[in-house]
Amino acid sequence: MTLPTTRHQPDATPPPGYDPRAFPAFAVTVDVVILTLRDARLQVLLIRRGGAPFEGAWAIPGGFKRPTETLDEAAARELTEETGVDAAPLLRQFGAYGDPDRDPRMNVVTVGYLAVLRDVPPPVAGTDAAEAALVPVAEILDGRRTLAFDHERIVRDAVDRVRLELEVSGLATEFVGDSFTLAELRSVYEAVWGVHLDAANFRRSVAGDAWIVPTGHRTRPGPNGGRPAELYRAGAAWRTGGPLRSPRTIDRRSPT
Amino acid sequence: MTLPTTRHQPDATPPPGYDPRAFPAFAVTVDVVILTLRDARLQVLLIRRGGAPFEGAWAIPGGFKRPTETLDEAAARELTEETGVDAAPLLRQFGAYGDPDRDPRMNVVTVGYLAVLRDVPPPVAGTDAAEAALVPVAEILDGRRTLAFDHERIVRDAVDRVRLELEVSGLATEFVGDSFTLAELRSVYEAVWGVHLDAANFRRSVAGDAWIVPTGHRTRPGPNGGRPAELYRAGAAWRTGGPLRSPRTIDRRSPT
DNA sequence: CCAAAAGTGTTATGTCTACACCCATGA
DNA sequence: TCATGGGTGTAGACATAACACTTTTGG
Known about the structure:
- The structure is a homodimer of 256-residue chains.
- Chain A has 256 residues and is α+β, with helices and mostly antiparallel strands.
- Chain A has 2 domains: 25-151, Nucleoside Triphosphate Pyrophosphohydrolase; 172-239, Orthogonal Bundle (Arc Repressor Mutant, subunit A).
- Chain A is 21% helix and 23% strand.
- In chain A, a hairpin with a 2-residue loop joins β1 and β2 (41-48).
- Chains A and B meet through β1, β4, α1, β5 and β6 of A and β1, β4, α1, β5 and β6 of B.
- The structure holds a DNA duplex (27 and 27 nucleotides).
């Protein structure tokens, strides 16, 4: 609860007319892990820090929560400021981080949000010298690239969350546009889960209007010809979950 | 990240030698949803508030995070103070809540933790007049019982999380003791998911030493006789997930 | 008609479910 | 020996995976 109970720490009990400022004060921030699919790889939007600490280091975008807004609103504001997209429903909270030394200057508790976009706009020009870049998450997960603060851990948790949500929610459709081919949708699962999926079986898994509704349009085929792919839009079933179960890499049932 | 970026809100950029106290200050608390299985129902530990606001209302236990401890440590401390059990590994963070009006007195951001215990000790006597009680979560989920602050929402999220973790983690074994019968373990799934499971099929699902290791001991049978149940302890496979997949109540694949 | 990629059929294998049945034990 | 659960067998429905095959299009 939001007040200390008097049962086991009576010394921390506020008097009836206590001063709220008598309790430890924290800064509260919201960090947004913006993920997208690019070159068949899961990539994350990073910005280069322009000031101390960690000046010049890469970090995920974020900012302070204002006292008058909710956490969700703060995350939506950050997402809009950073990418220009206004997509509050795409945001999913996935964790809170409050280690005392996570920011060298002050006590900061941050709440991590996840946003999946089908296209990350190029950085808005003319605002500042700060850079933005899309980086494959694999570089962060395997330690080839380090980030400011505890942002490596935050990205790791976000990716874990994406892998889970792909199975239990309709997150997969957020990686693709309003209309998409089955190959595009399949590549989402392949990139995020790191597996190969048989195109024929994948088609059967999502067959039916509940999952994919034909638009009647087709893609342009590639430079060497080939049959154009049918374009679909997402059906209603995605609201309640996903059509595929994550392949269990190891069979946890012991033999016999 | 933990500092505002200068790219889109330059007015919020701190000067190099800025004063940390210039940023909005929040109280940060940790609330612990303590769940257990009692009378074959999922129940939550509530305490009755002794002071304003919401005096006399039921709430989940919690308290302020100290600047020198992590969020996990704060949750472990609250759990110990409230129940006397020291079980940090049982704690799982599941959400953060920071609506501006969630506490009428001040701006409080709280982080929700979940703890599953096999037995909730009776309230520690002699500390205070505050009451503690185990309440079926169903009473809260269907609105028959209201709680202080936004604690109904927090309990709802915690229960959602338990239902999910039962499938993707070894949470089920935390509901039972070090040694348990298959009937006990099965009742965990039945109570949390609200389903009936065939005892024969359940046995097959968890068969194998990876999941359940026979202890060689048996239970005492009931008053009317009956075959004593074998006692098992949890195997190693629970560390990587659970043996059962949650039954999908509706088949989301559309016919043909 | 050829290349390329979409889309279909088929079969083997594995998993879930229901339910009949047997077994071990204390009263 | 009876009642009471624990524990096993089995058959059908259903899901998964592999892969050969057919279709559709642009060049």
